[in-house]
Amino acid sequence: MSAEFYQEYIENNRAIIARICRAYTDNEVDFQDYFQEVCLQLWKSKDNFRQQAKLSTWIYRVSLNVCLSLVRKKRQDPKELGPAVENLSVPPRPVEDPQQRQLELLYRQIRQLKEVDRALILLYLEEKSYEEMSQILGISVSNVGVKINRIKEKLKKQLHGKV
Amino acid sequence: MEKFDLQAIWQQSATEEPELPSFVAAKELVGDRSLNLVERIKRTARREHRTFLIAAAIGCLLLLAFQHFLWAGGLVIFTGLMIWKYEVEMGMINRIKPEHSTLEYLRAVSSLLERFMQNYRYGILIFIPLVAIGGALLGQYRVIGRIDWTFWLRPVMIGYLAAAIAVAILFSRWWLKTWVNTFYGKKLREMRIVIDELEAI
Q: CA dist B72 to A75, B53, B69, B137, Å?
């Protein structure tokens, strides 16, 4: 393991890692934890990356796997404290830019999806082909298209309802 | 562009590039406070193994000092088996790599977690009856100076051993439910749901 690999491979792909981690976390503290963990696991797995797969496919695979298997730190669940506290504990981030607001909304809706749907829509948004999606997730390629369309429609409906 | 062109909206997030944790910080994270389930199981297993080795060494010294050397020999053999088992398990854990496909990886992690939880169960199921048998054997040896096998066939002894087994079963169930499930059960259930969903696609 080397610092060079860490800098070279992970540094150049940190935007991808950030997008995946953002979709699986709903606050900044969790995001930082997930982001660090994914970087670490990528770095630890580098000996197994032998250019057989595309670097980006490998990064998506490791990042998704790590996000799906992390044990969240125990925090007081705001829901247990009642609706008043629940609303206070997640203050909406003031976003001025309408495009940024749409992106924020999209993230919020993605987080509402089931974990598998989240992974699929992330890969779709990252413009991965169905073959790549099936390679990353280990699923059959035949039904990916239908499933993606359903999730897309669901997301669009949710976004329409929010604007 | 339609009102919600998801990919167009998504492209805006391409600009986000958070600061990468330093190489040193990432290295420190490895064994210390990693949230990764596999790392966590590894850490727990390592800690428990060390505790067991310390307890076994103390037990061995006590047995050598106060009991027959055969008891200490038995404990050494048992410890040797436990070290071998630990090494095999660590080898299996190290084979789980996040660069496998998600379905493959989650299956491996979830079966590791199940095995880890079952280990506790089997440990308890073996340990309690062993202590009961060992205690009875030792007691008999100290009282009459030998092991009388016909004594072991008496209903009271059979009842005693059956009670030890029953206690072990009940205790292991309780322990698994309340202790291990508290830490890992939720994650295991979550992973099973994801695996089922991936398999259904």
A: 46, 14, 5, 15
- Please say whether the beta carbons of B107 and B55 come within 8 A: no
**B84 token code pair:** 């071998």
Distance between CA atoms of B194 and B166, rounded to whole angstroms?
36
What are the Cα distances from residue B59, in Å, to B7, B26, B66, B75? 64, 39, 10, 8
- Considering only the beta carbons, identify the residue of B9, B10, B99 that sits closest to A58: B99
Judge contact between A116 and B197, C-beta under 8 A: yes
Question: CA A40 to CA B135: how far, in whole Å?
Answer: 49
Helix (H, G, I), strand (E, B) or coil at B36: strand
Fold for the domain defined by A94-163: Arc Repressor Mutant, subunit A (1.10.10)
Calculate how close chain B gets to A102, using CA atoms only, in Å: 7
Whether B168 contacts B18, CB under 8 Å? no
Residue B79 in tokens: 């410890």
Q: What is the pLDDT along chain B (201 residues), one digit of tens a residue?
A: 444 577 777 777 666 666 666 666 666 655 556 777 788 788 888 888 888 888 888 888 888 887 777 778 888 888 888 888 888 888 888 888 887 888 888 888 888 888 877 877 888 888 888 888 888 888 888 888 887 878 777 888 889 889 999 999 999 888 888 877 777 777 778 888 888 888 888
Q: Do B6 and A155 touch (CB under 8 A)?
A: yes
ipTM score of the complex? Answer: 0.74
Provide the CATH topology of domain A1-73: Rna Polymerase Sigma Factor; Chain: A (1.10.1740)
At A52, give phi and psi (nearest 5°). Answer: -70, -40
Please identify which residue in the block is written with the tokens 């696991």.
Answer: A41
Write out chain A residues lying below 8 Å of B109, CB-based: 69
